[in-house]
Predict the structure.
Amino acid sequence: MKYSRPEPVAPASQNGAERRSSDRFPIERELRFKMLSKRLGDESGSGTTLNMSSGGVLFHSDKALIPGKRVEMAISWPAQLDEKCALKLVARGRIVRSEGGRTAVEIQQYEFRTLGAHGLAL
């Protein structure tokens, strides 16, 4: 299956100064997340990505998340391994903002994994 490259989303700017180092692409994919804080317990949830880049993800969720906290996300990936095996992107990062049902995460590390029988479970 072939995918065309989506057009990048214009990065946000503040007073004309660019804050992002990577173009964001409008990619809507299923997402599951869990907080990486012992104090927050096993807080987890799901959502849908709105746009992504190599440095961050913006997603919609019904939970308001706390900026500054670390989170792990599993995102269904549109491409397959050898055109046979479904993949997921597993990324860890820091929440940089969360408002109006939208959460922005700065990606600090990531890896691709096969989707497997457990789907997007973390």
Q: What stands out?
A: The two ends are 27 Å apart (CA to CA). The chain is about 0% helix and 55% strand. The longest strand covers residues 85-99.
